[in-house]
Amino acid sequence: MGLFGHSTSQSVLLEPFHPPIGLNAAFCMPHVETLVMKEKMWSFSGDDFSIQNSAGQDVVRCHGQAFSWRDRKEFKDARQMPLFTVRNKVLAFHKTQLIEAMDGTDLCTVKKKFSIGSSRMIASFHNLASANASSSSHDLIELECKGDWFDRSAIITLLGTERVVGQISRKILNMREVIGGQQTYAVTIAPGVDVALMAALCVCFDEAFNESQN
């Protein structure tokens, strides 16, 4: 797999989100959080990631299911409790991935958009993390991820604004990772944003970019 190549030294301003945004308020941190997403060596499916915070603590895990014709991936919390799954939508004109609850309920749709000279995707979901939203009507949130193939980086913003939600970069690889084809990513996330959702979006964006290169 490969996401926009090497890490970037360029930093962005990450302001807190009030109310929080995401699928689960329990994963909305009050501070800037950096996730280190490391692809596991010898993963049979090729889509297994350990995902830790900057202190080295497990946050979530991503497990790809081998031989799944929809490329289904399951995300679990640090206690191995299932959170949601990610799968490809079949018969979609543009690359589309669905984040679903364990009972199959749609939580988020991630669509690849045509963009000259860059990789662009839109993630749409109802804000389940906001305590201000009623149970029957949650605000629709749309996030835009744009990756510059020359800068080898990606920025995630609220669609139609310059409000930055997170930044994705690839960490410098060691020789073992280069030989094994494994990748390590850093995802820096604004306060008040669901870190589990951002990890899932990173995997979605990575897969779409990787397919565009093949």
Automatic annotation (TrEMBL):
Any single Pfam family the record assigns to this protein: LOR
Xref: InterPro entries: LOR, LOR_sf, Tubby-like_C
Superkingdom, taxonomy of origin: Eukaryota
Family from the record: Belongs to the LOR family.
Name of the protein in its database record: DUF567-domain-containing protein
Organism (species): Stereum hirsutum (strain FP-91666) (White-rot fungus)
Lineage of source species: Eukaryota, Fungi, Dikarya, Basidiomycota, Agaricomycotina
